[in-house]
Design the sequence.
């Protein structure tokens, strides 16, 4: 472990990432200041030796804390923050095992049953056909429908099994609320960007809509959405420009893609 005590806290990633946004949100709500350094997966930034040294798993976000330690995986980072900084415990109550179990259950459900499938959904039915210009819109649409099917099965369960008053566990938000919000937010943005209306996950659900609006009222949310907006043009250019070359050719097996879509792509 590097022996440092006055490193500047740095968040590596880019604002399009719902995972980085969750960490930024937790930092902001907690009053922990940080410097942002853009690392864009769309330009291969996550797989450079410099970033791989921070996170051998080659993903953003990574947080470098003031003690010089690098931590990756959004929820691991948020849990770390709660363990180190008492101010962060109101979002992840490490000293209250019962409440923590409830928070973990919601968070894990969202990670596995909602955010996970959603991530696959937009990669296969939005990125592949449109950003990578693979001419598989029709086949991508079938995957799109499979995803709607799963998401319509699991998202209502989360809503019906939570307080939604307006947050999942009641009046105050916890870690899973941040995860849910930034997943919903991305669903709204991608449904527009890729012209896939059914990818909008909360338009028709009053409880989710109320939840979304309540999150939007928080100053930290506004700060993060503004940062995302300010970077949007650059992100879009990368997405529809260099992404294919930087990523597809090096990291995706076209034979497997061909198998998914039933023909060479
Ligand atoms: N489970 C991770 C997910 C992070 C993730 O998938 N990040 C994306 C950007 S949103 C990424 O780094 N993609 C590059 C890659 O997978 O090569 C977390 O919660 O931090």
Sequence:
């Amino acid at each position: 472990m590097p022996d440092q005590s006055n490193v500047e806290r740095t968040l590596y990633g880019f604002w399009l990432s719902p995972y980085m946004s969750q960490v930024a949100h937790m930092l902001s709500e907690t009053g922990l200041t940080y410097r942002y350094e853009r690392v864009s997966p769309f330009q291969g930034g996550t797989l450079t030796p410099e970033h791989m040294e921070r996170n051998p798993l080659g993903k953003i976000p990574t947080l470098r804390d003031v003690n010089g330690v690098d931590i990756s995986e959004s929820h691991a980072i948020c849990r770390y923050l709660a363990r180190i900084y008492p101010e962060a415990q109101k979002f992840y109550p490490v000293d209250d095992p019962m409440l923590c179990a409830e928070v973990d259950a919601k968070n894990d459900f969202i990670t596995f049953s909602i955010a996970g499938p959603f991530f696959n959904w937009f990669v296969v039915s939005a990125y592949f056909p449109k950003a990578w210009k693979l001419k598989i819109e029709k086949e991508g649409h079938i995957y799109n429908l499979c995803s709607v099917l799963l998401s319509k099965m699991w998202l209502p369960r989360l809503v019906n099994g939570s307080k939604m008053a307006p947050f999942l566990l009641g009046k105050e938000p916890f870690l899973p609320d941040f995860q849910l919000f930034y997943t919903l937010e991305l669903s709204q943005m991608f449904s527009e960007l890729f012209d896939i209306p059914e990818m909008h996950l909360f338009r028709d659900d009053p409880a989710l809509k109320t939840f979304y609006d309540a999150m939007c009222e928080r100053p930290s949310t506004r700060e993060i959405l503004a940062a995302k907006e300010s970077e949007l043009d650059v992100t879009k250019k990368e997405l529809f420009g260099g992404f294919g070359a930087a990523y597809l050719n090096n990291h995706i097996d076209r034979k497997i893609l061909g198998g998914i879509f039933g023909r060479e792509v």
